[in-house]
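User: Please predict the structure of the protein below. I'd like the answer in structure-token form so I can feed it into my own downstream comparison script.

Assistant: Understood. Taking the following sequence of 870 residues as input:
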Amino acid sequence: MEQQSPTPQRPDDVKPANAAPPPVAADAVQAHQGADAPRSPETADPAAPPAPEAAAPPLTPMGWLQQNSPFLAVVAAVVALLYYNFGFDGVYRACLVAVGLGLVIFVHELGHFLTAKWCNVHVQTFSLGFGPALPGCSYKYGETTYKIGILPLGGYVQMVGEGAEADEDENYPRSYKNKTVLQRMLIISAGVVMNVLLGCVCFIVVYRFHGMPMPPAIVWRVDAGSPAWTAGIPTGARFKEINNDKNPNFETLKEGVALNSWYTGFVHMVYETLGGQTHTVDLRPRHDANDSQPVIGVSPPGKLQLLPQKNPDDYARPAFDNSAAAAARVVDLWYGDVVVRASDPSKEGDAVTDLRHDVEKGTFDAAELCERMRRLGDRDLVLYVVRNAVRAMKGAPEDKLVVPAKGFDFDDVIAATTDPDHPDDVLAVKELRTKAGGDSHQDFDFFDYQERLKRLEGRPMMMQVLRVAKGPNDATTSSRVNVLAPPAFHVTLGMRMKMGEVSAIRDHSAASDKIQPGDKIVAARVTAGGATLLNLPESELDPVRLPYDLERAANRARAGTAVQVVLTVKRWDAHEQKDADVALDWDDGWRFDEELPIGEASAMAVPELGIAYRVESTVVQVEKGSPAEKAGIQPNDRIEEISFKKREKNGPGKWDSWEEMKSDRTKPGAAAEYSYDQWAHYFYVMQSVELPDVRLRVSRAGARLPDMEMTLAPDASWPLEERGVILLSDMTLQKADTFLQAVGMGVDRTWSFIRQMYMGFANILTGRISFVKHARGPLGIAEDTFEAAKDPFQLTLWLGLISVNLAVVNFLPIPILDGGHMVFLLYELVRRRPPSDAVRAVASYVGLAALGLLMLFVIYLDAKRMWSGK
């Protein structure tokens, strides 16, 4: 119920007698008509206050419930849904989201309100949200009604004299229309200024009391065939300078690539390799029809700490389902111990059988132990172990160990692994290097770990982790725990795909000036010291497996022996296709670089040769008994679309949206040309999916076949280096030591974000950035805020970003937004007269329609993204 409080009677507190009730004018939509009651022109007194509204009769409690039952039912359903999915923590975070987003809107409208009052404008309504007020959320104090609307999509301040149709008397001094242009500009811009200040304050708070985590400007994975790949930027490179920024982070890098290059077309970079060499390069970002924004093709590294579990109801796990890490177990085994017997899942019951072992030499068959461990699933693993301390004794006693199905845990820090120099002794554990510039003795080198994964692929691996456990009275203890992880293998559908064209050659590589873009590799031979280590004719060459086959053959060469790869390529020469044999020197220095098909239209790379080639989704051969053969795939079939089954919290999984495997290969000035050549990327994705089910849409002889479902199968002959642990992203905490330093950092961050926003709009308008792929609407913002609400400082940072975002968007020159009003005021300032009411009305309706359609579109994009899990 509205309450009314008396206000002092002043002649300028009222509207003139002939003033018509003004229509609603708001930041985003027209608001409900003001509350002043109409007065008779014959009896109205310009100096008298408006006649008060007749008070509505009070509602009984039952009447109040009946009147607001639809709203209360919706609220109850939302709360129940949140509690069911996230527990009490979800309800609490949802409340924080509502309060946080409400604060951002409140501060914006408060800027308009306070400035209007300061300029002595008659404010009729101050509303958060649109539509009818929420139950008990409307209150009238003096001349202004304060309320919270039922639609939380914005807010508005309704002033007398605002809007194209308002027709207040020219003599009414408190009408918005009767204020000077500069005063009206001040009122209009006040909301934006307040949002910028709020964002800056949020950043200052985070910098001073917590610190802002930022990913370092370090390269981990490089997109095969990308500009960074072509320029030879290696894994582990640390950028020292980006566009004259001497202390960059990965956000600086993304800004320089996506935004700064809009001016010059190039990004200036200085980087240092893991070996300490400094290089300078000017890169032109790639932005073809297959990219949603300009890219150079690099991604930042992780940190050797597993994900934390902040709440038991979190949809999180320390290792991917169905991965090697998910089958890992904590084992009380140390260097020199020998496992002589272990549970045997091939036998009935809880049978324990011998493992191949040699007590004197201190060895046992770790691969067989890992295979049994994997096949046991959730059952306990029983081990009989001869400890290193008693191995020399005759009839040495055996310890019995019962190992439950428990492996990696949240917040584990990987500190050591099996020594890759002694790969046959899984218990020979070696400490990882400490990261260069690390801030603690527990900050281990991510790239040392990645190199060891590569060297130990296909073998059992012991990972020693630092684990913190809580005891009585929340006391914490730290210990080292050995986690035995089985080897990982690629999963396939049993199809060999068609080799595509060479798409790029790395500068100064073995293939420079020898292989040309457009060549097609049809055969390969590896030689060393006069011996042939591998011979792959066209009938056996698998383009997806080729990098591994070449590397495995090269690794068989004796140390110090030069390895050469002879590629047979088809190329066009004088309008005729010919075969040519090209001899290339194998450069093992690139062995540990992560050159992967990260983007949908990316290529497959052979790092040691500096070649990137595409893989078409046309089937060449189907293996007997494979998932593809069982599903009915035949040679010459073309895979056009793919869908994966995604993991659910409670359920068997659900199908993701279909992904079309078609690339736009149109050359400038040519007709549209498309190619189904994205198999390299989607095969890469298959290795990281948690559920092995895949759907394919297949074309045969131009006709679409019924959708096919099949299950990925592991290939024991093709090891995979990644074991499946889920690591945190590496972050560098930027924290201010003093309040003044925090203010400086907060101002810089605010300005940087405003600059990014405006340059982002420019890139959207010029087509350099995809609006469809990057836009976020109310649902997406609420979802991201809900996720950020897990941590108070993360929420503060996120609200600061939203506040600055709102300021920038609201000041765009679009009618009915603050920026649109400012355009009209600038016109009035220059022409010394306002635009006509007809122009303002048409512009407002057009702006309202455009924003309404845009809102519906981004909500649709949000819903589609949330439904597909992307």
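That's the full token string. The mean pLDDT is 85.
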